[in-house]
TrEMBL record:
Gene that produces this protein: rutD_2
Classification via SUPFAM superfamilies: alpha/beta-Hydrolases
Entry-linked Pfam families: Abhydrolase_1
Secretion signal span: 1-25
Molecular-function GO terms, alphabetical: hydrolase activity
UniProt keyword Transmembrane, yes or no: no
The protein, known as: Aminoacrylate hydrolase RutD
Keyword Signal: yes
Native source organism of the sequence: Ralstonia holmesii
């Protein structure tokens, strides 16, 4: 038992790096995020591969963020990230697809990646941080795209400050008290172990099915995450990773919120075989949100929006642009 405990603790330290890591180009190792002038001062259009990282201070925290697509105007779309994610964990095809028509902004949570401060210990705290960030950016109203843990944060934002949110896209996520959410750490560590012993990125197991289509989609996704070879973000720390796992555990044990008060349009998306946040949670969300639509992709798991990005992005843009 002592040996097992010791092995598990050592595994924790390794796990935080494994879940966040995306192989870095050997000719350009990360030295953390490079801070640059605001996007408004840049003369040419950029992509997710090249967009600079900036910082803004809100509530005593220096938030690292990236934005692009400002020239298109309209309501900004704020991306809210998954467990252990830093800026470099967003799929370039999804970000660039949204940015082709919208102003896209995403940021590192407090104490994660290049953002300063002590990591938030609850979904509610993360929502408060996101609200502070959004207001510091000067946005009066935003659309939210929350993936996994980010979808939980999005729900809290909509409940805390409903006037701040115009529309939401909730992908691979679930409500407070949702089935299997409190035990996501077990699935996470199991798939991290599988990744470690097979020499694969754990996201290949966590985000994608083990069918031929799922395996190939996972490989393609992980390759896309390597496209940004310079000025990459800092990886998540063990402390921040464990804080997020605890936040998810507590969220999964909470009493369900009254989502009937969320009247804004919501687009709920998932794969049919999500192991991290069981797919039935997406169906539950769609039932409880009075103005929602639901899309479940076949032969896919937690990362369905990345596997089916070519279909998802146009549908998401249609949702955001509809009246």
């Amino acid at each position: 038992m002592r040996h097992l405990l010791k092995t598990s603790l050592l595994g924790l330290a390794l796990a935080a790096t494994l879940i966040s890591s995306t192989a870095r180009a050997t000719d350009s190792p990360s030295a953390g995020a490079q801070m640059t002038p605001p996007l408004a001062m840049q003369a040419q259009e950029v992509s997710w591969k090249t967009v600079p990282t900036q910082t803004i201070t809100a509530g005593g925290v220096d938030f690292a963020y990236r934005e692009l697509g400002r020239q298109h105007g309209g309501t900004p779309v704020v991306f809210l990230a998954h467990l252990a994610a830093v800026l470099d964990n967003w799929d370039p095809r999804v970000v660039d697809g949204f940015a082709a028509a919208h102003h896209v902004v995403t940021f590192d949570n407090r104490g994660v990646g290049a953002s300063s401060g002590t990591p938030s210990k609850s979904i509610e705290e993360m929502a408060d941080d996101a609200i502070a960030f959004i207001k510091a950016m000067g946005f009066k109203q935003v659309d939210l795209f929350g993936f996994s843990m980010g979808g939980m944060i999005a729900q809290e934002i909509a409940l805390k400050e409903p006037q701040l949110v115009r529309k939401m896209i909730l992908a691979g996520t679930g409500p407070a008290g949702g089935e299997g959410i409190s035990t996501v750490s077990g699935v996470t560590f199991y798939d991290m172990a599988r990744g470690f012993f097979t020499g694969q990125d754990p996201k290949q197991y966590l985000f994608f099915t083990r069918t031929p289509n799922g395996i190939e989609a996972g490989k393609a996704f992980l390759e896309r995450l390597k496209e940004r070879s310079e000025n990459r973000d800092k990886e998540i720390s063990v402390t921040a990773f464990l804080a997020q796992l605890e936040a998810l555990r507590v969220w999964g044990l909470k009493e369900p919120a009254d989502l009937s008060v969320v009247k804004i349009p919501v687009f709920v998306v998932n794969g049919e075989s999500d192991r991290m946040v069981p797919s039935k949670n997406s169906q539950d969300l769609a039932r409880r949100l009075p103005n929602s639509s639901l899309l479940i992709y076949p032969d896919s798991g937690h990362g369905a929006v990345f596997q089916y990005y070519a279909d998802f992005v146009p549908k998401a843009l249609e949702f955001l642009d509809s009246h």
